[in-house]
């Protein structure tokens, strides 16, 4: 097992990927200082995707995605007009407390918009 938890790549069960003796091994250990580095980068530069953020701060894309997902879950960050934008830094202390898996995809696709998610009703007409 790697001693550097930031370099572990896990395709499935991504929240089970890091083990440290001082913490529960079934969870990611989110670091507030590292989250602040990510937030400062997002604040300094407009980023459209995870790849550019990962390159800028020297972390893996998976690491950036999971931290963004955790930050979005606490209302610290969201995507506005295609760019990641900071909403609030006040709750960074709560990072990792309640992660809503897939929240970045929901925000990106506009799935919260009732116009987009409205049901489509089709009428079937039988021609005799």
Question: How would you characterize this protein structure?
Answer:
- This protein is mainly alpha-helical.
- It has one domain: Orthogonal Bundle (Arc Repressor Mutant, subunit A), CATH 1.10.10.
- It has five helices and two strands.
- The protein has helices at 32-44, 50-57, 61-73, 103-109, 114-117; strands at 77-80, 83-86.
- A two-stranded antiparallel sheet has the order 1-2.
- α2 (50-57) crosses α3 (61-73).
Layout of helices and strands:
Elements: H1 32-44, H2 50-57, H3 61-73, E1 77-80, E2 83-86, H4 103-109, H5 114-117
Antiparallel strand pairs: 1-2
Helix pairs in contact: 2-3
CATH class: Mainly Alpha
Q: Percent of residues in beta strands?
A: 5-15%
CATH architecture grouping: Orthogonal Bundle
Mean pLDDT: 73
Order of helices and strands: HHHEEHH
Largest sheet: 2 strands, antiparallel
Computed CA radius of gyration, to the nearest angstrom: 18 Å
Helix content: 25-40%
Which tags fit this structure?
mainly alpha; single chain; 2 strands; 5 helices; two-stranded antiparallel sheet; Arc Repressor Mutant, subunit A; 128 residues
């Amino acid at each position: 097992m790697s001693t550097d938890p930031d370099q572990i790549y896990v395709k499935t069960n991504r929240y089970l990927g890091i083990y440290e003796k001082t913490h529960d091994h079934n969870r990611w250990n989110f670091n507030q200082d590292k989250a602040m580095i990510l937030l400062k980068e997002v604040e300094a530069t407009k980023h459209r995707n995870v790849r550019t953020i990962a390159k800028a701060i020297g972390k893996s894309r998976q690491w950036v995605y999971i931290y963004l997902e955790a930050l979005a879950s606490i209302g610290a960050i969201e995507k506005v007009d295609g760019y990641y934008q900071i909403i609030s830094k006040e709750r960074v202390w709560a990072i990792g407390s309640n992660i809503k898996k897939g929240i970045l995809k929901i925000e990106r696709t506009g799935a919260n918009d009732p116009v987009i998610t409205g049901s489509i009703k089709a009428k079937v007409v039988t021609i005799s």
